[in-house]
Design goal:
Layout (H helix, E strand, L loop, with lengths): L2 E2 H8 L2 E4 L5 E2 L1 E3 L11 E4 L12 H6 L4 E4 L4 H6 L4 E4 L3 H14 L5 E5 L4 H12 L5 E3 L9 H7 L7 E5 L7 H9 L3 E4 L13 H9 L7 E5 L5 H12 L2 E6 L8 E8 L2 E8 L2 E7 L4 H21 L5 H9 L8 E5 L5 E5 L5 H14 L6 E7 L8 H14 L4 E5 L1 H5 L7 E5 L2 H5 L10 E6 L7 H7 L7 E5 H13 L6 E5 L1 H5 L3 H10 L4 E4 L2 H9 L6 E3 L7 H6 L2 E5 L2 H14 L4 E6 L14 H9 L4 E7 L11 H21 L5 E3 L3 H6 L7 E4 L18 E6 L2 E5 L4 E2 L5 E2 L4 E6 L15 E4 L2 E6 L7 E4 L10 E5 L5 H7 L4 H6 L6 E6 L1
Parallel strand pairs: 4-5, 5-6, 6-7, 8-10, 8-11, 9-10, 11-12, 12-13, 13-14, 18-22, 19-20, 19-22, 20-21, 23-41, 24-25, 24-31, 25-26, 26-27, 27-28, 28-29, 29-30
Antiparallel strand pairs: 1-3, 2-7, 14-15, 15-16, 17-18, 17-41, 23-32, 32-40, 33-36, 34-35, 36-39, 37-38, 37-40, 38-39
Helix pairs in contact: 4-6, 4-7, 5-10, 12-13, 17-19
Length: 829
């Protein structure tokens, strides 16, 4: 991709301020943190309800960027205009799409577009794995399938590409029409239609119609002929638009373009089909139905590619490649390592594009942490580049991302060690590195572990990890972002959102959750005690932090770390004023708590005259906000009382707001209140349990965030009449298989869970006997269960709400009870 700034202006027809007419653009940028090369970058300053991309322009200008697209000029930008190119357009995202569409217009290679509710990324990556030895394939990075991600993906496709594979996702009506106009695909694959984003469409049929808009101008379409939702719509497109249909079937349905027969044998699925008039067999190293469906979409696309373009692959080669398919690493895991290290584990694939994305993730996670950046990298296979050129690019990436220690593992990368001008060591295989003294030298480093599957880098990760306890709490950072955006969508554009990260973000880990929220434009964080806020500041959190339960002794610490305390009594207010006077503080923000009916903490109505008098006659502090807490917003039986609280808050807070000469924000809504009483959102809301996947009004709109998992230590067979555990509380009523799990009440498994269930390989197994401190026992009679198998305490298939209900508590307690000794694994899909 290469444009002059004049060519871009001709496409967009902006109100231009072009001071550098000879500028050349080769890179589109929407995230200022991902700047790689300044001279030829065009920055799109996207404005959202929570962020204004224009505020990053001065910083980018200082780094050498001179080309910007904006939706309007500020005084600061007008001052820069004589020294750079500022293209003013009505809508920056629309401008990005227009340029993406123009890039697409110049492609010589055919374009495949993939959409569907699930499986898009896996199908894209497996097509690449199956065809990369024959064709130069350009593809979307990871899951770049949004209105912004698609044009960025198109801009990254190289001129010598022979096939472009682009993902397309939607979340709202009319988005797919815009995606189709940008991509203009030659071929299409639709994976499936599920419930994702269905809440934004009037009906399931509306969602299906919207998905299919991507294929309006397609020549050919791949889909599952057995899918009773997709197949009728595919026939419509075949009849009305002349799209050639390549439907596949596993049910011998007449009319399918290709028939497959599948059978499971051990850990493989055998797939039988006819190819070039001959019977073919692929041994696929996965057995789950979703993976099988994803592969059949890939195979049918290759079948279609032969028919449409003449590309040809023999069945033996295809079968060999299917057997070697690697899992698509859909997540980066972040976990604690030994000697003060933090590990970023991406140990299942390695290519140049994925490496750059992982290094970018590492750089964002290093902000505010005094950790050197280290990379452990294997050989990169099937890049299409000569070894010197490939590892020269790797060396350039390490320099750009300020990596200070590098471990290269593999014969190819070792042969190019002269290209790396940093603290670098090389090993021909993983075993050599594991047995070397170097593996014990990591200390206070942020270590990215990235390797091809064949190198077995999971052994390195296990060795460097801090905790060997097999019980782990897995935290999905993308689900956090999804839930944050869902609740944000219920608010007005100018309503601020406070995210509650107290109690270690409800037990999930406040630092990682806060970093994720800060990166996605969260306005304010809230903690319970000052120590929690200090830890966040030390970890690099810069947005405002409220302290909800401060004590007078911590006010100096609050001021030192810019923490904003809640004040709920005159005793606390007087102590703050005294501290502020002693330290010479002026206009320090505090948050005034009113008791409108919760009857926990706060000033009551009789206190207001005295409170207002104090606020009006001092300069040490100012009321940044005034707020209250609803006692029963999650239950409609309390709606009358909730109305009563709102009226009291409206009256009490108005007196304070009107009494001072500056702006005071008001807030009363919690998670349930945001969903059920959004008209009362005032200036700000507080998002707590909803952020972590619990919704009282619309459970399908949020995603579960955490899964608590462990493994089976041992299995024994016991006879009917035997007793299990302490105090012999459980007597077996039949001959039974009893499994022992390394999780007990010291890990957060409540003793009230006796008789409740866990998940083992999709089946439910009851907890037998009393829960012990470090272990518990479950009955796996009749289940497919072996020692070492994963057991889910809560997560997919067994929700936190269900677990809480069965032991007579609330989801908050279940989450916050998970003990610190249980390792947290954070992943980004």
């Amino acid at each position: 991709m290469k444009y002059t700034i004049e060519e871009i202006a001709a496409i967009l027809k902006p109100s231009s301020h072009i001071s550098c007419p000879d500028a050349i653009v080769t890179t589109f940028l929407t995230d200022s943190r991902q700047l790689a090369e300044s001279a030829h970058t065009l920055f799109f300053a996207i404005t959202t309800s929570t962020n204004d991309g224009r505020r990053f322009i001065p910083e980018l200008f200082e780094k050498g960027v001179r080309n910007f697209i904006v939706s309007g000029l500020t005084e600061e930008l007008e001052a820069l205009a004589p020294q750079c190119n500022l293209l003013v357009v009505p809508d920056v995202v629309t401008a990005l799409r227009m340029l993406g569409a123009d890039v697409r217009q110049h492609f010589k290679a055919p374009v495949l577009a993939i959409t569907g509710s699930n499986g898009k990324t896996i199908v894209k990556e497996w097509i690449w794995q199956l065809l990369r030895d024959d064709l130069k394939i350009g593809r979307s990075p990871l899951s770049y399938n949004s209105q912004i991600g698609v044009p960025l993906s198109l801009s990254m496709i190289k001129d010598d590409c022979q096939l472009a594979v682009i993902e397309a996702g939607i979340s709202k009506p009319q988005e797919m029409r815009r995606q189709a106009e940008t991509i203009r695909p030659d071929f299409g694959v639709i994976t499936n239609i599920g419930i994702a984003h269905r809440e934004n469409f009037g009906s399931p049929r509306d969602l299906i119609l919207e998905k299919f808009r991507l294929f309006d101008s397609c020549k050919a379409l791949v889909y599952c002929f057995d899918d009773e939702v997709i197949e009728p719509m595919a026939q419509v497109y075949g009849n009305l638009y002349g799209v050639r249909l390549y439907g596949w079937s596993t049910q011998k349905r007449a009319g399918a373009a290709i028939q497959y027969r599948t059978e499971t044998q051990g850990t493989y699925t055998h797939i039988h089909f006819t190819w070039h008039g001959q019977e073919a067999l692929c041994c696929f190293p996965y057995t789950d139905s979703a993976s099988v469906q994803n592969l059949l979409n890939c195979l049918t696309f290759i079948y279609m590619l032969e028919a449409e373009t003449g590309y040809r692959i023999d069945t033996d080669t295809l079968s060999q490649r299917v057997a070697q398919l690697e899992p698509v690493a859909m997540r980066l895991e972040v976990k604690d390592g030994k000697n003060g290290c933090v590990l970023i584990d991406d140990a299942y694939n390695s290519d140049l594009q994925a490496l750059e994305l992982a290094l970018d993730f590492q750089s964002l996670r290093s902000v505010g942490q005094r950790l050197e950046r280290a990379l452990i990298l294997s050989d990169i296979y099937q890049s299409g580049l000569k070894a010197k050129d490939l590892y020269g690019k790797v060396a350039d990436l390490l320099e750009h991302y300020h990596v200070t220690k590098f471990i290269g593992i593999g014969k190819d990368i070792t042969s190019q060690k002269g290209l790396f001008n940093l603290d670098a060591s090389f090993f021909e295989n993983t075993e050599s590195f594991l047995s070397s003294p170097l593996i014990d030298t990591f200390c206070n480093e942020l270590v990215l572990i990235k390797g091809s599957r064949s190198f077995g880098f999971e052994r390195i990760s296990r060795y460097l990890a801090l905790k060997s306890h097999t019980t782990a709490l897995e935290v999905n950072l993308d689900a956090i972002v999804h839930n944050y955006k869902y609740f944000r969508s219920l608010l007005k554009a100018d309503t601020r959102l406070v995210a509650m990260v107290k109690a270690e973000a409800y037990g999930l880990g406040a630092v990682e959750i806060s970093k994720t929220l800060q990166a996605h434009g969260c306005d304010v964080l809230a903690v319970a005690v000052a120590d929690e806020g200090v830890r966040l500041r030390q970890a690099g959190i810069t947005i405002p932090i409220m302290v909800m339960n401060p004590e007078p002794t911590v006010f100096p610490i609050c001021m030192q770390y810019r923490l904003e305390p809640e004040v709920y009594s005159f005793k606390l207010l007087d102590a703050f004023l005294e501290t502020g006077k002693r330290l010479g503080i002026q206009s320090y923000p505090i948050h005034i708590k009113l008791d409108t009916g919760m009857h926990r903490l706060g000033f009551v109505e009789a206190d207001l005259d005295r409170l207002i008098d104090i606020l009006q006659h001092q300069q040490i502090l100012k009321a940044a906000s005034v707020f209250s807490h609803l006692a029963g917003s999650d239950e409609d039986t309390f709606d009358d009382y909730t109305q009563y609280q709102w009226k009291r808050f409206e009256a009490m807070s108005s007196r304070i707001v009107e009494a001072v000469p500056y702006k005071v924000l008001r807030h009363i809504l919690n998670s349930a209140g945001i969903e059920r009483f959004s008209a009362w959102q005032c200036d700000q809301v507080r998002l707590g349990i909803g952020l972590y996947g619990i919704s009282v009004a619309n459970p399908e709109a949020v995603r579960p965030v955490a899964s608590l998992k462990t493994r089976i230590l041992q299995i024994h067979n016991y006879k009917k009449g035997d007793t299990i555990g302490y105090s012999r509380t459980t007597t077996l009523q039949r001959d039974s298989r009893i499994a022992v799990l390394p999780i007990g009440y010291a890990d957060g498994l409540n003793r009230r869970n006796r008789g409740c269930e866990v998940l083992v390989n999709g089946g439910r197994a009851p907890i037998m006997g009393n829960v012990c401190m470090d272990v518990c026992m479950i009955d796996v009679t009749g289940l497919h269960a072996e020692e070492g198998d994963t057991v889910t305490i809560f997560g997919d298939g067994l929700t936190i709400s269900e677990v809480a209900q069965r032991i007579g508590t609330i989801p908050y307690e279940v989450l916050t009870s998970v003990a610190p000794r249980v390792k947290r694994i954070y992943y980004h899909e």
